[in-house]
Design goal:
Layout lengths: L2 H10 L3 H13 L4 H21 L5 H22 L8 E7 L7 H12 L2 E5 L6 H10 L3 E7 L6 H16 L4 E5 L5 H7 L3 E2 L3 H11 L2
Helix pairs in contact: 1-2, 1-3, 2-4, 3-4, 4-5, 5-9, 6-7
Bound molecules: CO-5-methoxybenzimidazolylcobamide.
CO-5-methoxybenzimidazolylcobamide (B1M) binds next to helix 3, helix 4, helix 5, strand 3 and strand 4.
């Protein structure tokens, strides 16, 4: 069995220790960290997500799988990130209110950091007003990124964008949105400045937004 497939299976089973060992071995074997991420880790999240939707696995299984995924991610993180010492700008990022999903948001933060930004990570379940206070606390912030993973939290994303606009930041700070249920059409509809489908394109967009 290919190493990435073994990693994927171990993540699906929520086996933290096995995932750590397998990821370390894969790195030693010279498998590129991006392949480990895409073919081992992200595919595992897709499989467990589909199994959850079909009722084949339950919430605790998704929780164990996400812990295993995070353990593996910690190992490849330094290789994925090439953060510089002189940031090109500051970016605030968070997952919107009512939403606990942070794996994608963390990956976006990592890649945007690699693109040269200093990241202020507000975490998960971030109320709209907290995005605004973060901007007040960081007047030099150039980009705000908001993530939503549930169809039920898309409204919270809309509220976050509206709160940032209402606080007078429209045009002053660029708002980027993303997450599995989000589309370019929805991003346009709620008045976001940018939408990205994945962490890599989020980093490219972030750099473009301030150029
Ligand atoms: Co949840 N969950 N979950 N879950 N979960 C999904 C999202 C789901 C699709 C599973 C399914 O049913 N097939 C489904 C949502 C259905 C929907 O709304 N359409 C779902 C559900 C229903 C739920 C609960 C409601 C289940 C319940 O309680 N009955 C519950 C909600 C809790 C809450 O948030 N209030 C819940 C809970 C959980 C866990 C806590 C167990 C766990 C999260 C742990 C954690 O994040 N710390 C979890 C997990 C792990 C998943 C799946 C399996 C994996 C999510 C993930 O990490 N993907 C997920 C199924 C799936 O995604 N296939 C599922 C990998 C990650 C790298 O991708 O997050 O999409 P993603 O991020 C990508 C892009 O979207 C994009 O770039 C990222 C990297 O490439 N992106 C951005 C993300 N943010 C961006 C921001 C940007 C730009 C791009 O700019 C700022």
């Amino acid at each position: 069995m290919h190493k990435c497939e073994e990693i994927s299976n171990a993540i699906i089973k929520g086996k933290v220790k096995d995932v750590k060992e397998l990821v370390n071995t894969a790195m030693e074997d010279g498998i590129p960290p991006r392949d480990i991420l895409n073919n081992g880790m992200l595919s595992a999240m897709d499989i467990i997500g589909e199994d959850f939707a079909k009722g084949l696995v339950f919430l605790p299984d998704m929780m164990y799988a996400s812990s295993a995924m995070k353990a593996g991610l910690e190992i490849i993180k330094p290789s994925l990130s090439q953060a510089g010492v002189n940031p090109i700008g500051r970016a605030v990022i968070g997952t919107v209110k009512g939403d606990q999903h942070d794996i994608g948001k963390n990956l976006v933060a990592l890649m945007v950091e690699s693109a040269g930004f200093e990241i202020i990570d507000l975490g998960v379940d971030v109320p709209a007003e907290r995005f605004v206070t973060a901007l007040e606390e960081n007047p030099d912030c150039k980009i705000i990124g908001a993530s939503a993973l549930l169809t039920t939290t898309m409204d919270a994303l809309k509220e976050a964008v509206a709160a940032i606009h209402d606080a007078g930041y429209k045009g002053k700070v660029k708002i980027m949105v993303g997450g599995a249920p989000i589309t370019q059409e929805f991003a346009d509809q709620i008045g976001a400045d940018a939408y990205a489908t994945d962490a890599g394109s989020a980093a490219v967009k972030a750099a473009e937004l301030i150029s």
